[in-house]
Amino acid sequence: GFKLGKVCPYIEACDIVVGENTCDGKKKSYEILSGLLKDFYVIDLPQMKSDEGKKLLKQEYKKFMTKLEQISGKKITADSLKKGIEITNAKRNAVKRLATLRKANPVPISGLDALLVNQVFFYDDPVRFTESVNKLCDELEERIKNKVGVFPEHTKRLVISGCPMAVPNWKVPWIIETSGATIVGEESCVGERGTQWITEARDNTVDELLDAIVERYFQIDCAIFTPNPSRLEHIKSMVKELKADGVIHYGLQFCQPYIIESHTVENSLEADGIPTLRIETDYGQEDAGQLKTRIEAFVEMLGNK
After folding, report:
1. How far apart are CA 298 and CA 276, in angstroms?
2. pLDDT, tens digit, 9 for 90 and up, residues 151-189
3. pLDDT in the model for residue 82
4. Does 267 lie in the same domain as 218?
5. How many CA atoms lie within 13 A of 136 on its CB side?
6. Which residue, 42, 74, 106, sits at the end of a domain?
7. pTM exceeding the 0.85 threshold for the entire prediction
8. Does 44 lie in the same domain as 157?
């Protein structure tokens, strides 16, 4: 959509666009994109967590490295790969620090602002981003020390779970935080699911470092994996650690993996006494009123518990 509308400067200026076949919608959209871009590369991802899947992912990384070396004219060495891992780990640790500070009551930062930080994670220069997030965290620590929050202490605390929310997907968070609740965590690849784990780069060869990267990504409980029981435990642990009152599961329309998995998520959370609301929507504003009514009713229900 960004390419067709020519609204994303990154797509217009970059030398290569990389896609990954996580779901059917992406797979088929790449057939369109490949005819619109000068260089489009697709990484094949495993759908099951197995030794065979790890071998497939490592092989795909090796092929992608060869592609990057071709277009950049630079050789990827163990030292350069290790440096990249260190920079990325620092970026993840900064966002993890932010996530930890959101445990405070009153919350020192709105969920909408925290979501924007997680979205910029994918766009900004990594070193500059890390420095900026750590500065933000320094400020938030002062707010926590002085009991300064963006919402009153009694505000209902929610974890939002489900599909990644890329820019400019702010509709549901905005509705939640104008309906008497605040978002204290995102169980999402644009959120804690994407930054919770770091790459353990203890080895010294490219092959060994690739193994470490593969191990790191196989810890992620994305809905493309089946079966995916670890995601349920991840959501429950977030609810406990963040002292959340409930969960809103967000499904982007036509995103089958998360929409289908939401049934299992809701049943598991409700069985553990965690109030859950399932929402399926898109980027449009046509259903904003209906969503606000449902979310306000959910928040009111939490207040009666």
Report:
1. 9
2. 999 999 999 999 999 888 999 999 999 999 999 999 999
3. 95
4. yes
5. 23
6. 74
7. yes
8. no
